[in-house]
Amino acid sequence: MELKLRLTDDGSHTLYRKDIDENYHSTHGAVQESEHVFIKNGLNYCHKALFKNHISILEVGFGTGLNCFLSYLYAKNNKVRINYSGLEINPLNDSIISQLNYCSNNQEQLIFNNIHQFEWGKWGSVSDFFKIKKISSSLQTCKFENKFDLVYFDAFGPRVEHQLWNKKWYSKIKNFLNDDSALVTYCAKGSVRRDLISIGYNVERLEGPKGKREMLRAST
Ligand SMILES: C[S@@+](CC[C@H](N)C(=O)[O-])C[C@H]1O[C@@H](n2cnc3c(N)ncnc32)[C@H](O)[C@@H]1O
């Protein structure tokens, strides 16, 4: 799996996977995309609109850990407690992770390193308000042990992974959602939206991050 580090328009890094000709994030800005789709329309929504202060998050596609890191910063600044489960089918190696430029000071870098150094498959504490378990498995094969309030659906898109974007896997997630929960994704494809609705999610089309017209939020 050949990966190349690339700068996006907001100055933050993404990774480019040559074999599938796909970036890990929007080239208009990795951090701006993550902040908009997952933090503002996911975590902030779950906290402020669903009134949750203790939030269990599942991320499908942990990748660089950017969404996890930004969730940690949100939790710290907003006094929220988070249990974070990160699913990843292809964990990245340390040499590529060490080149990512997501941190603005040494303290943040320590947290980012800490997130990546935890052993896979075990719960660890990044702080007293943020616990993490990284799971080296696919959504299709993993066995969940707890329920979730919020899902970051951030695998590669339907062009690359059409076998993942269907009702079977949206239902698997839905069975592990608490009441008043939400799934957010950067993908706004009509067939994805219709499939989510057909299995009982309430789906909103929201304004997309820079460079993209729409995104989806599916609630229970
Ligand atoms: C678009 S990238 C986003 C990664 C990550 N959220 C980030 O900010 O770096 C998609 C990630 O999903 C992972 N992935 C793809 N299919 C998956 C699956 N079926 N289950 C779990 N992870 C998957 C990929 O290996 C990749 O790391």
Classified by CATH, the class is: Alpha Beta
Named once each, the bound ligands are: S-adenosylmethionine
Structural class: alpha/beta
How much helix, percentage-wise, in residues? 25-40%
Q: Major sheet, described briefly? A: 8 strands, mixed
Order of helices and strands: EEEHEHEHHEEEHEHEE
Domain count, please report it: 1
- By CATH, the topology is Rossmann fold
For the structure shown, list the relevant keywords.
220 residues; alpha/beta; Rossmann fold; eight-stranded mixed beta sheet; three-stranded antiparallel beta sheet; 11 strands; binds S-adenosylmethionine
Textual characterization of the structure:
It is a single chain. This protein is an alpha/beta fold and 220 residues long. The chain has a single domain (30-219), classed as 3-Layer(aba) Sandwich (Rossmann fold). The chain is 30% helix and 29% strand. The chain is built from six helices and eleven strands. The strands form two sheets. An eight-stranded mixed β-sheet has the order 6-7-5-4-8-9-11-10, sandwiched between helices. A three-stranded antiparallel β-sheet has the order 1-2-3, with no helix packed on it. α1 (30-48) crosses α2. 38% of the residues are buried. The mean pLDDT is 97. Bound molecules: S-adenosylmethionine. Residues 24-25, 60-64, 66-67, 87-90, 138-140, 154-156, 161, 164 line the site of S-adenosylmethionine.
